[in-house]
Amino acid sequence: MTTPSLHRNEKHRNDEDWFNLINGEWIPSGSGKTNPVLNPSTLKEIATVPVCGKEETLQAISAAHQAFQTWSATSAYERSAILMNWYSLMMEHQDELAKLMTAEQGKPYEEAKGEIAYAASFISWYAEEAKRLYGDIIPASTANKRMFVIRQPVGVIAAITPWNFPAAMITRKVAPALASGCTCIVKPAGQTPLTALYMAKLAEEAGVPAGVLNVITGKSSVIGDTLFEDSRVAKVTFTGSTEVGKHIMRASAATMKKISLELGGHAPVIVLDDADAQLAAEQTLLSKFRNAGQTCVCANRIYVQKGIRPEFERLLGEKMARLQVGDGMKPGTSIGPLIDEDGMNKVIRQVENAVSGGAKIVTGGKAVKIPGHDGYFYEPTLLTGVDASMEIMQEETFGPVAPIVEFEDPEDAIRQANDSPFGLASYLFTSNLNQAIRIAERLQFGIVGVNDGLPSAAQAPFGGMKESGLGREGGKYGIEEYVEIKYISLGLQS
């Protein structure tokens, strides 16, 4: 897979070699080592990327630290214009980016196109928000004082992003950081670095100055620890597992970095008897099976009230049976491959555990072999007769399995939904407005979709409670994570 010539410094390389962006230069690793990038559908190598380490990470930190001195001093309008250029280039190259994402991540092409548009929406949103980082004038207690509050960028940002949304998880962090005047170092997931590098090339074309946005690939532990230890890095923003998030908190404590953590989820769905069964089934399907169930906000635990359960189960099963499993580039594919063997083994283990405990497979329930493909494909699977003791109700699945638990009393459903260390997203289906508001307020989750399986949007806050993380991304709230509030007290001379 050949990289497009979108940058100024196209150096001699093999067609399959991709370089890192540090201080406006596209460079290999100092060691010359590379890692392969595999297509999860075929398990074939499609490209290589540099294996960078401490030396290259320090170079990126130095570049970002130096660039911050000038980027933070540019006007909000200048930064906004550059971000809008980046947005336009993202949409202009939407097809190429989507094909690249499907090749390295596996999600269906149309879904990948949707992610590119979603990712670009954060850039355009924060291009506008750059001009709205307002301050305050506070009435002083004496006549000879004036009291001002201003917002200033925190400094160099380290953004560590996951493989399941290779574009959107970058722009959701980088766009508000750049808009506020920060500079960035992005460490993309090892499985999906190509989308990040392509986006960086477009950012360079858009006019983002050298050193303002740097992208490095390599061993996560080495790059991460270097970023966490360096006092020039003012903030770390991370999307990934709770276990790694806790490590980042500990590692960042020595230099008192600001941190934003979007961590694991285990999203419950509550379907009440008075819900529109068709709407509930359709929205649950959209939530559960997007990206083959490999999202942190997808429906993981489906609690359905006794009266509506037969109809809901029938409708959901019928819709699931129409989902097509296969290569993401094949027209009509709804479910692509799981990212790797570990992901497949976890799904298999959870389904086997549920069945051994008395759960029933209504549809699906096994791995799928796609002719000419060696990737890890699994059928959309509907389980009934599930209870709280089963592994699938305790752990995030990250796969295309929908377990249904029947309940009678809504109080019991609320209790079970909240009985988790995670608190990222939740979903509720009901036609009763009073009940919707009351239950939504009691659910211990940062996001509640009421009759809505896809609540995420650039203009809305995204983030969780409990062990699902700290901080918010998106909306006016997201840019606040990248600024310091400074109070200036001015004494007037007589």
From TrEMBL:
This enzyme's EC code(s): 1.2.1.-
Pfam families given in the database record: Aldedh
Gene3D superfamilies (UniProt xref): Aldehyde Dehydrogenase, Chain A, domain 1, Aldehyde Dehydrogenase, Chain A, domain 2
CDD domains according to UniProt: ALDH_F5_SSADH_GabD (cd07103)
Gene Ontology terms: biological process: gamma-aminobutyric acid catabolic process
Residue span, Aldehyde dehydrogenase domain: 26-488
Database matches in PROSITE patterns: ALDEHYDE_DEHYDR_CYS
UniProt enzyme class: oxidoreductase
Molecular-function GO term, any one: succinate-semialdehyde dehydrogenase (NAD+) activity
UniProt superkingdom: Bacteria
Oxidoreductase in keyword set: yes
Keywords in alphabetical order: Oxidoreductase
UniProt family annotation: Belongs to the aldehyde dehydrogenase family.
Protein name, as recorded: Succinate-semialdehyde dehydrogenase
UniProt organism field: Paenibacillus lutrae
